[in-house]
Amino acid sequence: MVNIRKVECPKDKIAIKCPYEMKPEFIVIHNTANDASANNEIAYMHRNNQTVSFHYAVDDKEIVQGIELNRNTWNAGDGTNGKGNRKGIAIEICYSKSGGAKFEKAQRNAAEL
């Protein structure tokens, strides 16, 4: 399996990005709709103040975890108490805008994760 690297969510962002404890029950998978790397996706998520977050970003070379799995994320668009946001491990697959070999490898890495 490709390397999984963990990047801790900044403490001052926890109230915005992952305010609730959670016991995961399933997985929610999205494509990023851009061509940023996993590292850049997590870095962007951590530095902005939007209530958008996810546990993992996966690209063709690595998997980066940006939120602890026992914390919720804002990924599913189903509200504060929606099952996607409050019970799902959120995975974002990178390089989906252009597709091609990088995206295909990112999809395989996400499936392995």
State the main characteristics.
single chain; 113 residues; alpha/beta; five-stranded mixed beta sheet
Can you give a write-up of this model?
- This protein is an alpha/beta fold.
- The protein contains four helices and five strands, in the order E-H-E-H-E-E-H-E-H.
- A hairpin with a 4-residue loop joins strand 3 and strand 4.
- The relative contact order is 0.27.
Give the SSE map.
Blueprint lengths: L3 E3 L7 H4 L8 E6 L6 H10 L8 E3 L4 E3 L17 H5 E6 L6 H13 L1
Parallel strand pairs: 1-4, 2-5, 3-5
Antiparallel strand pairs: 3-4
Portion in strands: 15-25%
Largest sheet: spatial strand order: 1-4-3-5-2
What spatial form do the alpha-carbon principal axes imply?
Answer: globular
Give me the secondary-structure category. alpha/beta
Largest sheet: 5 strands, mixed
SS field, number of helical segments: 4
Helix content: 25-40%
Order of helices and strands: EHEHEEHEH
Low-confidence stretches: none
Summarize the structure.
The protein is an alpha/beta fold and 113 residues long. The chain has helices spanning 14-17, 38-47, 83-87, 100-112, and strands at residues 4-6, 26-31, 56-58, 63-65, 88-93. It is built from four helices and five strands.
